[in-house]
Fold this protein.
Amino acid sequence: MENKTDEQKLIQQHLANERTYLAWIRTAIALVGIGFLATTLHINAAPEAGAVEQNLVMVVSLSALALGVLTIVAATLNYYSMRRNINESRFRSSQWIIGFMASIAVLLVILVSIYIFVVG
């Protein structure tokens, strides 16, 4: 078995970075989907709901959409940062994006919980 050159190692790291980026994009699409799902379920399950419920489902839906867009932006920034780090043979942990996504998940769960509590 022959030794891998530095260039081959970089190729593998760049491909791993691209796979990670695509995973974040799938997560963003799922977040946007949650927003559309909340709106669709609300329209079908509670068409005669009051103004508070209507406003709350709009907040949940728009928040999910905004969080999905923010996830795309954050993932893209992280991708280019990692790309630069790979090329410069540096490693920096992705703490900020992990904290960001954890915050997004908690916020979305809180919004959906409030909606369920008010409507249910």
Residues 6-45 form the longest helix (40 residues).
